[in-house]
């Protein structure tokens, strides 16, 4: 392959810029031409496609967000949108595309694969909810940000003998809550992958104060319910502590990427280019047991593919499980 493109799509994540930088620099090093696509699939369909040089990605590795912008573009779930996107790519002489994004963006890459257009997925999302990789780009930074915020909440919580529900992001995955909660020494961690009993939670809060604790930190993954909803349930179940809710929100999506996210992004971006250079599309790059791996995007579960199709409907072959094994849950 001689000419490829790169886009970022879905929720932005710290480290996406580092991934794009790696794609651009590696492609140029390999003697390929590389184009950028603004605003994800929306820009692909609109033809917002332009050549990128090595200089264009200077000073980008340390920046959060994505300089290629991101967008939600539901029209790409329709076959007309997908074919219009491929037409634009072909018009620019582009032979393969690197998609940096989350779960929804991977569905788009799967459709490109289905239509025979070579796409390589690079997992960029803070949620760590992508199949085919142990860690996604942006997760480490989001956990570090959440951890820092929880440490600060703990200071004020102890000073006032308060109970705090800290709601963290993660969509339907509990990874951010698990890592930030364990790292911050939270008293309770509630994740969607694991049931909880509100009466047991209230008993544990009471037990904590009775045993001389001067605060209670409950880390709640947004996929379970909202912080205010949980607060109502906890109060209804008899909690009599001074209870506050803190929703960390979008601060978890921004900021300078950690070393881990920058290195992961650089490895994965470079690998995506190597695959396309060898004419290998329809793959998603991941990291498994600290080794770079790639999985077919579309195929059977036995082949290790991420998705299969059942009468046009997308089936996720091995749904993500929030590193539950690691924590022996
Ligand atoms: P993320 O990639 O972070 O999970 P989204 O779920 O918003 O974010 O998906 C990003 C974009 O991927 C969507 O706006 C849409 O353009 C595309 N996309 C999502 N789902 C599909 C699908 N089922 N088929 C094709 N494209 C999709």
UniProtKB/TrEMBL annotation:
Amino-acid positions noted as binding substrate in the UniProt annotation, renumbered to this chain: 125-127, 162, 169-171, 222, 244, 250-253
Designated gene of the protein: pfkA
Similarity section: Belongs to the phosphofructokinase type A (PFKA) family. ATP-dependent PFK group I subfamily. Prokaryotic clade 'B1' sub-subfamily.
Protein name: ATP-dependent 6-phosphofructokinase
Active site: 127 (proton acceptor)
Residues that, per the record, bind Mg(2+): 103
Organism: Pseudolactococcus paracarnosus
Keyword Metal-binding: yes
InterPro entries assigned to the protein according to its UniProt record, in alphabetical order: ATP_PFK, ATP_PFK_prok-type, PFKA_ATP_prok, Phosphofructokinase_CS, Phosphofructokinase_dom, PKF_sf
The EC number(s) this enzyme carries: 2.7.1.11
Cofactor: Mg(2+)
UniProt binding sites for ATP: 11, 72-73, 102-105
Chief place of localization: cytoplasm
Ranges where the Phosphofructokinase domain occurs: 3-276
Pfam families according to UniProt: PFK
Reaction it catalyzes: beta-D-fructose 6-phosphate + ATP = beta-D-fructose 1,6-bisphosphate + ADP + H(+)
Function of the protein: Catalyzes the phosphorylation of D-fructose 6-phosphate to fructose 1,6-bisphosphate by ATP, the first committing step of glycolysis.
Pathways per UniProt: Carbohydrate degradation; glycolysis; D-glyceraldehyde 3-phosphate and glycerone phosphate from D-glucose: step 3/4
GO molecular function, one term: 6-phosphofructokinase activity
